[in-house]
Design goal:
The complex is a heterodimer.
Chain A lengths: L15 H5 L15 E7 L5 E7 L1 H4 L4 E6 L35 E2 L5 E7 L2 H9 L2 E6 L6 H6 L13 E7 L4 H9 L3 E9 L11 E7 L4 E6 L4 H13 L6 E4 L15 H13 L3 E4 L2 H7 L6 E9 L5 E13 L26 E10 L13 H18 L4 H8 L8 E2 L5 E2 L4 H11 L5 H10 L3 E10 L7 H6 L8 E7 L5 E5 L8 H13 L6 E4 L17 H28 L6 E4 L2 E4 L5 E3 H9 L14 E6 L8 E10 L6 E11 L6 H21 L29 E4 L19 H20 L13 H8 L2
Parallel strand pairs in A: 1-12, 10-11, 14-15, 20-21, 27-28
Antiparallel strand pairs in A: 1-5, 2-4, 2-6, 3-5, 7-15, 8-13, 9-10, 9-12, 13-14, 16-17, 18-26, 19-20, 19-25, 22-23, 23-24, 26-27
Helix pairs in contact in A: 9-18, 14-15, 17-18
Chain B lengths: L2 E7 L2 E7 L5 H8 L18 E4 L2 E4 L12 E3 L12 H8 L9 H14 L5 H8 L10 H22 L1
Parallel strand pairs in B: 1-5
Antiparallel strand pairs in B: 1-2, 3-4, 3-5
Helix pairs in contact in B: 2-5, 4-5
Classes of the chains: A alpha+beta, B alpha+beta.
Chain lengths: 789, 163
Amino acid sequence: MPKDHGIGASSKRREDVRFLTGKGNYTADITLYGQTYAAFARSNVAHAKIKSIDTSAAEAMPGVLAVFTGADFADVGGNPAGWLIQSRNGETMKEPKRPVLAHGEVCHVGDAYAAVIAETVAQARNAVEALVVDFEELPAVVDMADAVADNSKRARTELTDNICFDWGWIEDNRAAVDAAFASAPHVTTLELVNNRLVPNAMEPRASIGVYDASTEDYKLYTTSQNPHLTRLLVAAFVMGIPEHKLNVIAPDVGGGFGSKIYHYGEEALVLAAAKRIGRPVKWVADRTESFLSDAHGRDHVTKIQLACEKDGTFLAVRTETLANVGAYLSNFSTATPTFLHGTLMAGPYKTPLVYVNVKAVFTNTAPVDAYRGAGRPEATYSLERVIDMAARELNLDPWEVRRKNLITTDMFPYTTPVALQYDTGNYQATLDKLIELSDKAGFEARAAESAKRGKMRGLGLSTWIEACGIAPSALVGALGARVGLFDAATVRVNPTGNISVMVGAHSHGQGHETVFAQVVSSMLGIPEANIDIVHGDTAKIPFGMGSYGSRSLAVCGTAMTKAVDKIIAKGKKIAAHMLEASEGDIEFADGKFSVAGTDKAKTFGEIAFSAYVPHNYPLETLEPGLEETAFYDPANFTYPAGAYSCEVEVDPDTGKVEIMAFTCADDFGNVMNPMIVNGQVHGGVAQGIGQALLENTSYDGNGQLVTASYMDYAMPRADDLPNYTVDHSCNTPCTHNPLGVKGCGEAGAIGSPPAVVNAVIDALARAGKPVKHIDMPLSPARVWAAMNA
Amino acid sequence: MKTSVSLKINGKSYQDDVEPRTLLSDFIRHHAGLKGTHVGCEHGVCGACTVMIDGKTARSCLAFAVQCQDHDITTVESLGTQEELSPLQQGFWEKHGLQCGYCTSGMLMLATELLEHNPTPTRDEIREAISGNLCRCTGYQTIIDSIARAVEIKAGTALEAAE
């Protein structure tokens, strides 16, 4: 019997009713008294010196209230990178300044160098057209290989070369890894591209700045996945506003997928402009602005090598990666190709030796940062592709090669050669479940049926692991993080017994308002309807690090359970007093505090009321009120894992790939709301299939983004995608958080691209067309060209 | 130079003086104050802004407000209320047909048209019908489930009415 409420129930989402009736409240929906509008002037060239900007004509345009250029922000700080990476030679990474508006130099197409504030959007945009900028074009660095090979062209004039850092993980392993390769019976080498993607949340970025001169308070409404981090960056790093004078509100946010984690210059601009003109300033990106200026994802070029025995036993893995960071370092951009990528290169396997080298490369393109999965999809794709290739070279079954090398259940906790310690898992179980659910046994018959219709059928898989719930502050600090990665929650029990929970996580589609309430409901025995989850407002919430890295439940959810534990502990003290019993004899269950072994009890509501009307209350030893806050810093990452398969048909005449089935066997630890977890997996897989078959971000040789609209960038549509079969019955609970949860938001995007590509390669191989590799996206043209080469 | 336009949206008249280039989507959002219609791309590709003009779905970012004078506009606000969801809204709620909610209004309008023309669509027909609109969150399967569920709900309601 499925549960109908509380932990483990597929509770319908309480946030849905407002979205279904058009009553959501997104940033673009907010209209403030006296509101004005900002529009940005963006570079139409990839790299140029700004010789002059003549603003006089624009300033004289109707409705124009102010014009800003980079010079207005020359004295404020830059938007910093959140992680400081050390190169192999001990040098610290290069961190050229990222100003609010480009000053002196524009560094990518779409780089904002001026902004106009006007009474209407149209007036602001018209005035942007009237700005006269004199660019002296500089050579554009676009291709990463060129950027590394040729120091004479530099993405930023202040740099001496284009390499941000040259990182080795773990440098001390390198000699042993090289030795293993030198003596290995078999070495498979694969060079691949992890294609650049645009996250493309359906809601474009938007911000509204407000300033109250009488109190010197700022308010920022913005499309953010983590309002507290935005507050910290704007206040302490960029604008120098006292942190208590800045309230950041992220209301309903229409998807993020990583791109709304970061602070962007537009947020600082609307605040500065609101102060200068004394009225609220609103900016809403159009879609092409989003393409040009949102942080992109992936964009790695990797050479991966796998050393193994002839029987497929893995001996060592070695990778060399060029990772594009664009023209500016976005907040997580240096962590993504390093600690979210290199540390995952052991995968779920026993490979004893691993060495990862990553060179981060500046180019005259938009910043690249974490996008759903963030480093882990890149690691998984490299590894799962090279394993498949090795199996083919050795004439072994790719499924059995994986099984042979998977870490076994008796090996946990398992410390990898790339410094993670996996706490628990059962990789054989998810692989077995996948074999069952994908009906692998029936594949040959289906392939024969496809062949009758003239189609080539293939089956591919990936067995993957990720590190989620980022993460222990002490560990990430040692690895270069400049922030802590804990989270916080306050549980406020009101006098009448209903509850407001203020959480540092931010929901932009994940359904926290429902799931977090389910957890509190189960813990306190209070109906979900009596519990509200409050998020997205720095004035209401104690603190928080936001939502990304599949961390909301594992980190913030744990903080919340700890705050609930404190509520229960205090409730026991109150109950002991009221029931004239000793505190140790009070038990709490099903919303009642009772004296063990008696029928004496007080309801949760009675205890809450007593805390606020403390007439019969131990005031000499206990404060009145019932509100508790907890901060939680995890002991380790969590390690979701799973096995995915993809079954495809390839049309031999056109190269078109059709996905016939996609099956996911996941281990997310305990599942709080199966319906929502399934939805997260579906969405992740859809984005992974998008990467594998459709999506590509293409800059031409001059640094022009040629895929800057939905006419040019292939977003997956319903008829591009299959039905998904999703299972999470093989769960092993996380060992170090009380809910036993691991995180599920990114899994689909991590495990799916290699499964799709492996399936296509399998289809071609079965049809007698032994193609070693095709780079994503596997468009009909690429597949056709590969099989007819 | 501004032009006076009067649009009938969800059966109610909204009059305002607007620039001729004002988009229907902007009129609905900023002049009529109906924020349920979302703008995702302003070039007619994503479908988030889908409304009905005279009973047919249209991208409200591709029409000018002045073109819609004297035409019937229907938006998401015409469907059910928070107290009483329509069968489609109920279907989306039960089957998790939305995550961030941004594409949802457009999907609901698209599905409304589909069910008017084809009250009992197959899953393939539903998939085909919603392929004009983008959703980045759901991977579409639960949207298809939701519309199929709405068909069941409607059938159930019809059955109850018959009894």
